[in-house]
C-alpha cells in the first residue's frame, strides 16, 4: 500500500520533518508535482488548520494556502478574530494532484485525493499534530475530514460543532477540540458567495471560542 511512514524520521522536530517530506515517495503524487508543500506557521500554535492538498500556486511556491483559497481563508480568519501568527496551516496531502484537460490548454486542474492517497500521507499529518498538539484543530472540507475522522465523514452533517480530536499515529488526540467546516475554495465556487463565506466565518468562531 502507499505509505509515507518509511520516510518520516523518528524524533524529528518540524524543520527535520519538512526536510524529510521533500524526499517523500510514499505515493505516486510526488511524480507530476513540482515539490512537497509542507505545513507552515507557528510550531506552538494553539490552532491548527488542515486543508486538502496544495493547489497550483502552492505547488509552484512551496507554501500552503498562498493562492485564491488561501486568500479567502485569511479573510475568514481575520473576520473570525483569529491572529494568523498564532496558527499553523497544513494539508491532508502534501503534493498537488492535478490533470490536464485538453480544452483548457496548459492549465493544471485540481483533482481531489482519494482515500489511498489520504491514508498514505497521514503519517506526515500525525507527526505535525504530535509535535504541535494544538488546543483546537480546524478541518477544512471533506478530504481533511476524511483523513482525520474516516471515510464516513460528511461536512454538511458535522460542521460547526466541537468534536473529539481523534488519535492518529503518534498524535494522542484530545477531548472536544476539532471543528470541521467547508473548504475555503467552496466559497469561490458558490453562487451565493456571501452566505457561504459567512458560514465559514461562523464555524471558525466556534473554534475561537474553544481556545483559552
Ligand atoms: N487548498 C488547500 O486545501 N490547501 C492549500 O494549501 C491550498 C489550497
Ligand atoms: Fe508522500 Fe504525501 Fe507526497 Fe504522497 S502526497 S508522495 S505520501 S508527501
Alpha plus pi helix count: 8
Shape: globular
- Structurally, the number of domains stands at 1
End-to-end separation: 40 Å
Q: Could you spell the SSE succession in H and E letters?
A: HEEHHEEEHEHHEEHH
Summed over residues and divided by their number, the pLDDT gives a mean of 97
The assigned structural class equals alpha/beta
- What is the strand arrangement across the widest sheet? 1-3-2-6-8-7
Low-confidence stretches: none
Binned, the helix content reads 25-40%
CATH hierarchy class name: Alpha Beta
Q: CATH homologous superfamily - what is it?
A: Uracil-DNA glycosylase-like domain
User: Hey, roughly how much beta strand do the residues contain?
Assistant: 15-25%
CATH overall fold name: Uracil-DNA Glycosylase, subunit E
CATH architecture call: 3-Layer(aba) Sandwich
Radius of gyration using CA atoms only:
16 Å
Bound molecules: uracil, iron/sulfur cluster
Give the strand tally.
8
Task: Produce a short descriptive summary.
This protein is an alpha/beta fold.
Keywords, separated by commas or semicolons:
six-stranded mixed sheet; Uracil-DNA Glycosylase, subunit E; 212 residues; binds iron/sulfur cluster; 8 strands; two-stranded antiparallel ribbon; 38% helix; alpha/beta; 8 helices; binds uracil
Amino acid at each position: 500500500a502507499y505509505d509515507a511512514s518509511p520516510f518520516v524520521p523518528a524524533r524529528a522536530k518540524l524543520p527535520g520533518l519538512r526536510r524529510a517530506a521533500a524526499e517523500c515517495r510514499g505515493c505516486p503524487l510526488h511524480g507530476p508535482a513540482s515539490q512537497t508543500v509542507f505545513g507552515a506557521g507557528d510550531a506552538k500554535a494553539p490552532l491548527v488548520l488542515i486543508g486538502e492538498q496544495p493547489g497550483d500556486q502552492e505547488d509552484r511556491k512551496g507554501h500552503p494556502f498562498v493562492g485564491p483559497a488561501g486568500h479567502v481563508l485569511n479573510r475568514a480568519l481575520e473576520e473570525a478574530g483569529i491572529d494568523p501568527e498564532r496558527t499553523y496551516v497544513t494539508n491532508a496531502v502534501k503534493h498537488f494532484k492535478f490533470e490536464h484537460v485538453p480544452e483548457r490548454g496548459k492549465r493544471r486542474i485540481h483533482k481531489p485525493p482519494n482515500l489511498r492517497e489520504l491514508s498514505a500521507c497521514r503519517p506526515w499529518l500525525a507527526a505535525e499534530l504530535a509535535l504541535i498538539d494544538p488546543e483546537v484543530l480546524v478541518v477544512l472540507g471533506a478530504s481533511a475530514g476524511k483523513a482525520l475522522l474516516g471515510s464516513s465523514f460528511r461536512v454538511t452533517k458535522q460542521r460547526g460543532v466541537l468534536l473529539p480530536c481523534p488519535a492518529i499515529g503518534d498524535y494522542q488526540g484530545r477531548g472536544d477540540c476539532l471543528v470541521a467546516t467547508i473548504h475555503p475554495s467552496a466559497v469561490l465556487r458558490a453562487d451565493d458567495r456571501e452566505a457561504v463565506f459567512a458560514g465559514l466565518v461562523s464555524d471558525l468562531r466556534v473554534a475561537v471560542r474553544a481556545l483559552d
